[in-house]
Amino acid sequence: MSTNDTKPVPTLSPDGWVRATAQKCDYIASYFLLSQYSQSYLYKGQINSFVWILAEYKDNLKMIESETQKALERMFSSYFNRCSVEVTSKVTEDQKASLYIYVEVTDADNKTFKLGKVATIMNSKLEKIANINNYGHE
User: Fold this and answer.
1) Where is 52: in which H helix or E strand?
2) Cα–Cα distance between 35 and 68 in angstroms, integer?
3) One digit per residue, pLDDT tens: the chain, 138 residues?
4) How far is CA 126 from each of CA 34, 59, 89, 103, 118, rounded to the nearest angstrom?
5) How, if at all, do strands 125-131 and 112-122 pair?
């Protein structure tokens, strides 16, 4: 058994150190979506932040896709040895962009957990985040 699969996710909530796979995935995704790139002097340049990616690549949806996927792969692979991340996008007629985020991890017990999120972006601003239930690819 590897150390990544059993490594807990630290929280500043009453949950403390989270070890359950589904809960770990939820916290990791939340940290990515809510973190600020400049929130730490000690780890400057090492904070994975969706908000920063949107600001940095505001007019380049392909770069937003690519950088989001890389950041999530870094984050999830810190806690799971087997993980895959896929990020795709679609632009609607009203110029809103939807970013589809699919994550699949396998824990130490060989159980697979899937996480799906869709982020709606309008004028380089995050408008909405929703869960994708029972996801399949379009």
Assistant:
1) helix 50-56
2) 13
3) 445 768 999 998 899 999 999 999 999 998 898 877 656 556 566 678 898 899 899 889 999 999 999 999 999 999 998 999 999 999 988 888 999 999 999 988 899 999 999 998 888 788 888 888 755 544
4) 11, 13, 14, 20, 11
5) antiparallel
Task: Tokens 């396998």: give the residue.
Answer: 106
Q: How far is CA 89 from CA 10, 70, 129, in A?
A: 31, 15, 14
Cα gap 46→96, rounded to integer Å: 29
The token pair at 134 is: 């029972």
Closest listed residue to residue 25, CA positions, set 136, 131, 138, 137: 131
